[in-house]
């Protein structure tokens, strides 16, 4: 607590340069080579969340432009589309711009074009002296961009290739259109292994002067699902809750995870339209809190699977897959989440009454 | 703008141009077909077009639109109630005598009740010079810069350019006197107000009107055609001080009867009594449609004059097309959820609602209707298995008709089916599966679909979250999904326990106070917590 200045461990111990990265060393070496060469291609970072994509992007930027890239400002930029103006927050330094175009939903195409055009048309003033003659645009969550926007991106990319490089970040490349993928150098950032997570946790514990047992470190790593960010956060949360650690220290989960667990309980307790009504309001609660519907579906399925017999498991997973696919096609996830729960209730009720006979 | 836009511009304008002159020709024909005198422009209804075509084909038979031919020439012939006419006359005379009166008069009522005719006749009587605005017929496909407007932005831009024209028109009519008759007072008449448009367009429209009423000297009449049931007009408060309203009611049957009989006697025609009754009945107080129907009925027959033999065999009674009723939304939802059943011969109860017909008369988009039914259907089922079958069809209907994916990502939409078919399939599924559970006497209220508000509050929460993240990590970028799922729940926990949060809120408050921002916009209620963090903040609020 003595060193507490408001930052969390996960921010404080985030590696800032390529040299400090100790996970995925092969990848780091590759990135280093790329940064020193004159010609940096467009990059596409992909991998699950908590693997360290953003950390790597930042490290690449730093090794490209030096420390000045860390002097950033956040601005809320208003972009005019027809008569409407939409606001989007942009993080920028003198060398790069970061933006999450999927924030603006339907108008993302215009946002992508406007921002890139703006940055690409203004060549940095110190172009002669700086190491690199281009600026970098970092786009987050590219997989959530509309197809329209992705195509627009493709053209803009070609047009301004002389003054501007793109770094795209996404979870999965399956929703990124082919032409875009082929124009970028894909960089896969896999999840760290359990061992890597525990060693990271141990090194943080050492720096903070916290005594962390191997067992607890393992448990935290296991429960995080190999998500390093989550592991560090829950480590700190556990430390704040109770220190020194008890041998059977409970590792807390995120609020929404508990919430979904509670929903699974409610579903298996009673199967009725009234109960479904309740579940529907719970779904709305989650959606309102910006939990992505895919994650709700996944976690709920996992929770429900733990509560049913083996013979039912096939059906549950099959229907989950069915409605997950529907959800991707449709635009209102509540329809499909609800239909899944209705299906589960019906299956489970039939199964239970079969047991009684 | 975009390369694609330029590219699209050429072929589309190519396609568009050829049918433009055609349209205009039809239009002018309607305007000048009576003794070369310019008539008021009619909206090109189907009947008027057929009439014109008929005229072209058989020039020997004189077929003219009766609605134009028999338009009242004197105010006494007008079908509007006398007290309303007097009210309008009063208002106009006040302006003539420069007495204080409200600048703008809003005349509203159902279609075909003689609003326009009344105003025209009175303006003539009191010697006003009319300056009339109608919606421009030549549809603006381009905006001012000449860009082609894509399907998504078109409605917006299209109306904007019309707004511009409208504003210009008003400016001219208030700035210049009529050159032909400078001594007459000018009366601005605006027909076809944008009642059914989006709120944004409506708002701007009223802004223009307000601006006019504050600055202009000439009186203005707005004519607004309303639906039959709807009596009140939505308008913003700020225009009411300038505005007087005059509601015109439906034409009463006796008056309509008199009107139609007059026409028939002038034309020396006759129709069977039952058809005559039908016409009046189905017109629902709409004189124009009644006259049109009457004429169409007669055109369909060989011409005959009074005294000629009546044909022996009568025509089938229901020849007049039924006027489509737009259902009230609650009524429409009830038709499916509260469906009444009738017994068929075999002892089965079959639902009486004809879903396909219902789809045609929906007051809203079929997809939106689906959301409404979805919102309430749970309370109407008793059995979970039944429910799961219905839910499956609702899910299918939603998935295959939505126009954009949840994240704005669009899967391949080439196989999309019209949403009305899917919606009716979902409704039929409900009625088919939900047989046993009769909802007798169950009083259910329908609510607005929650999912409509859900989306908005999610966006709001996301914004709050961004603000919050910005406060403790100003240099980093917050992505909604990741932060919400991973970081924030733990972060809130850690910070709460460290009591950092309190300081943080305090800090941000101070900061914002310095910046002169409103306190309500604080990250006061953190979006990611389920009640837990809020309690901390509430304490904080009490201290203040």
Automatic annotation (TrEMBL), chain A:
Entry keyword set: DNA replication, Nucleus
Gene Ontology CC: DNA replication factor C complex; nucleus
Domain AAA+ ATPase: 39-195
Stored Pfam families: DNA_pol3_delta2, RCF1-5-like_lid, RFC_C
InterPro entries: AAA+_ATPase, DNA_pol3_clamp-load_cplx_C, DNA_Rep/Repair_Clamp_Loader, P-loop_NTPase
Swiss-Prot/TrEMBL GO biological process terms: DNA repair; DNA strand elongation involved in DNA replication
Name of the molecule in the record: Replication factor C subunit 3
Organism of origin: Planoprotostelium fungivorum
Automatic annotation (TrEMBL), chain B:
Top-level taxon: Eukaryota
Listed GO MF terms: ATP binding; chromatin binding; DNA clamp loader activity
CDD domains: HLD_clamp_RFC (cd18140)
Alphabetical keyword list: ATP-binding, Cell cycle, DNA damage, Nucleotide-binding, Nucleus
InterPro entries in the cross-refs: AAA+_ATPase (IPR003593), Checkpoint_prot_Rad17_Rad24 (IPR004582), P-loop_NTPase (IPR027417), RAD24-like_helical (IPR057927), RFC_lid (IPR047854)
Keyword Translocase part of the UniProt annotation: no
A Pfam family the protein falls into: RAD24_helical
Coiled coil (UniProt feature): none
Principal place of residence: nucleus
Domain AAA+ ATPase: 101-253
GO-annotated biological processes: DNA damage checkpoint signaling; DNA repair; mitotic DNA replication checkpoint signaling
Localization, UniProt: Nucleus
GO CC annotation: nucleus
Segments of this protein annotated with the region Disordered: 1-43
Name of the protein in its database record: AAA+ ATPase domain-containing protein
Family indicated by similarity: Belongs to the rad17/RAD24 family.
Entry annotated with the keyword Magnesium: no
């Amino acid at each position: 607590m003595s060193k507490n200045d408001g930052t969390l461990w996960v921010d404080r111990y985030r590696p800032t340069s390529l040299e400090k990265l100790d996970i995925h060393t092969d990848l780091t070496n590759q990135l280093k080579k790329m940064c020193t060469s004159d010609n940096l291609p467009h990059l596409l970072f992909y991998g699950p969340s908590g693997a360290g994509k953003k950390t790597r992007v930042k490290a690449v930027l730093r090794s490209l432009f030096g420390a000045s890239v860390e002097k950033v400002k956040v601005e809320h930029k208003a972009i005019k589309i027809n008569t409407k103006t939409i606001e989007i927050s942009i993080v920028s330094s003198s060398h790069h711009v970061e933006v999450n175009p999927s924030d603006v939903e339907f108008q993302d195409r215009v946002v992508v074009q406007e921002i890139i055009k703006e940055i690409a048309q203004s060549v940095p003033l110190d172009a002669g002296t700086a190491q690199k003659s281009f600026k970098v645009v970092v786009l987050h969550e590219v997989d959530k961009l509309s197809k329209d926007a992705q195509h627009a991106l493709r053209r803009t990319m070609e047009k301004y290739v002389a003054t501007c490089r793109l770094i795209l970040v996404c979870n999965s490349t399956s929703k990124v259109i082919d032409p875009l993928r082929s124009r970028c150098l894909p960089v896969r950032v896999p999840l760290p292994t359990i061992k890597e997570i525990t060693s990271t946790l141990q090194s943080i514990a050492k720096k903070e002067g916290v005594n962390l047992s191997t067992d607890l470190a393992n448990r935290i790593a296991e429960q995080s699902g190999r998500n390093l960010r989550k592991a560090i956060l829950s480590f700190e949360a556990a430390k704040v809750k109770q220190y020194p650690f008890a041998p059977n220290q409970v590792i807390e989960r995120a609020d929404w995870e508990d919430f979904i667990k509670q929903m699974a309980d409610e579903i298996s307790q009673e199967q009725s339209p009234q109960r479904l009504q309740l579940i529907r309001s719970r779904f709305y609660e989650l959606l309102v809190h910006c939990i992505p519907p895919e994650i709700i579906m996944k976690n709920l399925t996992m929770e429900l699977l733990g509560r049913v017999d083996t013979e039912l498991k096939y059906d549950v997973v099959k229907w989950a897959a069915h409605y997950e696919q529907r959800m991707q096609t449709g635009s209102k996830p509540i329809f499909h989440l609800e239909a899944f729960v209705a299906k589960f209730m019906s299956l489970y009720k039939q199964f239970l009454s079969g047991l009684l006979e | 703008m975009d390369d694609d836009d330029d590219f699209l511009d050429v072929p589309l304008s190519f396609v568009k141009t050829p049918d433009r002159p055609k349209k205009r020709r039809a239009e002018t024909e309607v305007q000048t077909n009576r003794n070369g005198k310019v008539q008021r422009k009619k909206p090109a209804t189907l009947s008027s077009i057929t009439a014109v075509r008929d005229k072209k084909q058989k020039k020997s038979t004189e077929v003219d639109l009766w609605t134009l031919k028999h338009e009242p020439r004197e105010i006494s012939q007008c079908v509007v109630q006398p007290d309303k006419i007097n009210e309008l006359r009063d208002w106009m005379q006040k302006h003539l005598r420069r007495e204080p009166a409200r600048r703008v008069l809003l005349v509203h009522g159902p279609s075909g009740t003689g609003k326009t005719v009344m105003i025209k006749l009175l303006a003539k009587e009191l010697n006003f010079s009319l300056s009339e605005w109608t919606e421009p017929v030549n549809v603006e496909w381009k905006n001012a810069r000449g860009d082609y407007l894509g399907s998504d932005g078109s409605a917006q831009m299209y109306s904007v350019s019309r707004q511009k024209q409208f504003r210009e028109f008003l400016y001219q009519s208030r700035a210049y006197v009529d050159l032909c008759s400078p001594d007459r007072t000018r009366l601005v008449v605006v027909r076809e107000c944008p009642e059914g448009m989006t709120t944004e367009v409506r708002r701007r429209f009223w802004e223009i009107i307000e601006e006019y009423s504050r600055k202009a000297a000439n009186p203005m009449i707005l004519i607004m055609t309303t639906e039959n049931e709807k009596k009140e007009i939505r308008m913003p408060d700020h225009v009411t001080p300038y505005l007087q309203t005059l509601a015109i009611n439906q034409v009463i049957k006796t008056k309509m009867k008199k009107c139609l009989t007059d026409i028939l006697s002038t034309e020396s025609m006759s129709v069977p009594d039952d058809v005559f009754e039908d016409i009046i009945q189905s017109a629902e107080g709409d004189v124009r449609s009644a006259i049109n129907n009457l004429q169409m009925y007669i055109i369909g027959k060989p011409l005959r004059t009074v005294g000629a033999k009546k044909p022996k065999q009568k025509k089938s009674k229901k020849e007049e097309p039924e006027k489509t009723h737009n259902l009230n939304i609650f009524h429409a939802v009830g038709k499916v959820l509260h469906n009444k059943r009738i017994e068929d011969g075999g002892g089965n109860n079959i639902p009486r609602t004809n879903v396909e017909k219902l789809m045609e008369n929906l007051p809203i988009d079929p997809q939106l209707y689906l959301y409404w039914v979805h919102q309430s259907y749970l309370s109407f089922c008793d059995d979970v298995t039944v429910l799961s079958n219905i839910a499956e069809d609702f899910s299918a209907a939603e998935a295959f008709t939505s126009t954009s994916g949840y994240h704005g990502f669009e899967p391949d939409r080439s196989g999309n089916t019209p949403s009305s078919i899917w919606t009716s399939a979902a409704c039929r599924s409900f009625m088919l599966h939900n047989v046993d559970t009769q909802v007798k006497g169950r009083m259910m209220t329908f609510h607005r679909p929650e999912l409509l508000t859900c989306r908005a509050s999610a966006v709001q929460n996301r914004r709050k979250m961004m603000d919050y993240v910005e406060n403790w990590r100003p240099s980093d970028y917050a992505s909604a999904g990741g932060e919400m799922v991973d970081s924030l729940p733990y972060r809130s926990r850690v910070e709460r326990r460290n009591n950092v949060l309190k300081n943080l809120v305090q800090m941000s408050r101070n900061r914002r106070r310095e910046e002169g921002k409103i306190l309500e916009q604080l990250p006061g209620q953190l979006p990611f917590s389920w009640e837990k963090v809020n309690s901390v903040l509430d304490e904080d609020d009490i201290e203040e």
